[in-house]
Each structure stands twice: as C-alpha cells, then as structure tokens.
Amino acid sequence: MKNILIAGGSGLVGKKITQLLERKGYHIAWLSRNPEKYSQKSFAWDVEKYEMDPEAIAWADGIIHLAGEGVADKRWTASRKKAILESRTNSTALLLQTIEKSDKKPEVFISASAVGYYGFNTGDTLMDENGQAGNDFLAQVVIAWEDKVKKIEDLGIRTVMLRIGIVLDNKGGALVEMLKPPVAAPLGNGKQWMSWIAIDDLARMFFFALENKSLSGIYNAVGPKPATNEELTQKAAKKVGKLYMGIGVPGFALKLVLGEMAQMVLGGNKVSAKKIRDAGFEFRYPSLEEALEKIYNTD
Fold first, then answer.
1. What domains, with CATH codes, occur in the chain?
2. Would you call 265 exposed, middle or buried from its count of C-beta atoms within 10 A (0-12, 13-18, 19+)?
3. Euclidean distance between CA atoms 167 and 196, whole angstroms
4. Are the C-beta atoms of residues 142 and 289 closer than 8 Å to each other?
C-alpha cells in the first residue's frame, strides 16, 4: 500500500498528514475542485456537482477523508448549518458511489469524525466510544456523517473513524483563536472540559490507523489528559507571553456574538483516549505542557 488519496488534504490537518506520510514513503494525492492550483498531485472532484475523477479511486490504495466545512468559521445561519452537514455527508456519499463503480477498491478508508458526537456539554463524565450521542446540531451532523461512512465499511473495506477533539497547533484552529484578543481570558466560567490533541499526534494517529490492519471502527482522537478551558487558556497565554485575566468572558456576551455556536465553546466534553492507547498507539505529547512546548518550539 503506497498510494494514499486525501479528501481535504489542503487543510490544516490534511497538510500535516501529507507531510508525515510522504516522509514515511507514501505517495499522496489530494482531491480538489481546482487540482491545478496545487503543486501536490491532485485529482478533480466537485461535491456540489456530485462529480469526481474515477481515476482517483483506481490510483488509491487507501483513502483518508477529512473534507467538510469548518464548524467554527462563520455564524450558524440555516444555510451555514446546511453546508456544514452536507459538505460531510455528500462528500462521503460521492466517495462511496465512486468506489462502488470502481473495479479496484481501496484497502482502507479512514475518516475524520468529531467528539461533537457526544453533545455540546457532557459535564464531568468521561466519554468513551460507546457513549450516548447528543441531540444538538453538531451531534446530529456527526451521526449522519458516520452513518454514511459505515456504508463504505459495508463494501468490505477496512474502515476507521477518528472522532477528533480540539486540535492544537500554532498555524490555525482553537489556539490561534483563543490567543487573538489582547488579553487572554477563559470563556464562560472556564470549567468546561476541552479534549485536545496536538496536531503532530493526530497526524501520527492517522498513520497508525493506516498501517495497523487490526484497527477498524470508531476511536476517539484526543489526548489522554483533557484540560479545562481555563487551564488551557492560561497555560497557552503563559507560553506565548500574553497577559492572562482570570475573569471569564460572560456567556451572554458570547451568545450575542456567536448565536447558537456559543454552545460549542460554553459546553465541553471530557473524552477518553483509552481505546486507541489499548490498540497500541503511543502519544508523543500526552500532557498539555509537552504539547505547548512542541507547538511553540521554545527551549
């Protein structure tokens, strides 16, 4: 298995996975609406038009599916929520349809999923992969997304779904947003749990899922030591030398600015990494301190 096709390869996580897999000797191609835009080998697809170059599947020994609109990029209007859902379900359905039509099937299909499956706020309960699904918007998105991925598993293809937590990196995502204001402060009361993972460990987890043929099904892609919003904000601010204020941004103010999306930052999940560790995955950055040290590359 040498040729790996990535849907969503140009994103933050996709680029990191691409770099790692290429170092490991894999050949990587991306799926893109504008394949000529990238120096990376790319095949054309257009999810909105439901079109895809069938040669992509013929080329691929394995597929990594990361495609989907960013859940925190824009305020959740009705049209935005529709885009968040359909970008995931329709892209998966297009991959499924193209795989079904192909004479050559991939050996493995690894899909991103999200800890949003468990709901906006699960309190202090440690959630494992058998935990009950939430009933809010993001949980319903993840349920629908995973249901589509399971149809690929039904084709007899080894399928792995990684429920990703909050990805820590200095080039984008939660850390960058948390440290944007002149003064860093927790959100709401700051006691909500944030199940985070260093981006390097996340990329290594996709590699682990690719290489280990015994792996299939659903795994939480989070670090082993969840942190509260207050702890994460304070430690990140200290690492970059930013002033930290312990008074939280009021929940009502966040709701005014973010609307329904505020639930995502005011709630939290405490999610277990036990299943992936029991499968043999070893975290390189298991603690928040180690992760931040790596991310900000200081002595």
1. 3-167+195-223+270-283 (3.40.50.720)
2. buried
3. 6
4. no
Contact, 37 vs 31, CB < 8 A? no
- Using DSSP, state whether 199 is helix, strand or coil: helix
**Residues near 222 by Cβ (< 8 Å), separated by ≥ 6?**
115, 163, 164, 165, 195, 196, 197, 271, 272, 273
Torsion of CA 89, 91, 93, 97, to 10 degrees: 180
Please classify residue 82 by burial: count the beta carbons closer than 10 Å to its beta carbon, then call 0-12 exposed, 13-18 middle and 19+ buried: exposed
Mean pLDDT score, 279-290: 97
* Residues facing 108 on adjacent strands: 62, 158
Contact 264, 203 (CB under 8 A): no
CB 45 within 8 A of CB 94: yes
Assigned token pair, 250: 């009021």
Contacts for 292 with CB less than 8 Å, ≥ 6 apart: 168, 235, 236, 239
pLDDT tens-digit series, residues 202-240: 999 999 999 999 999 999 999 999 999 999 999 999 999
Give the residue among 98, 110, 90 at the shortest CA–CA distance from 47.
Answer: 90
Is 299 a residue whose pLDDT tops 70?
A: no
- Encode 151-185: b = buried (16+ Cβ within 10 Å), e = exposed: bbbeeebbbbbbbbbbbbbbeebbbeebeeeeebb
Q: Is the CB of residue 259 less than 8 Å from the CB of residue 75?
A: yes
Q: What does pLDDT average to over the chain? A: 94
Rounded Cα–Cα distance for residues 237 and 83 (Å): 33
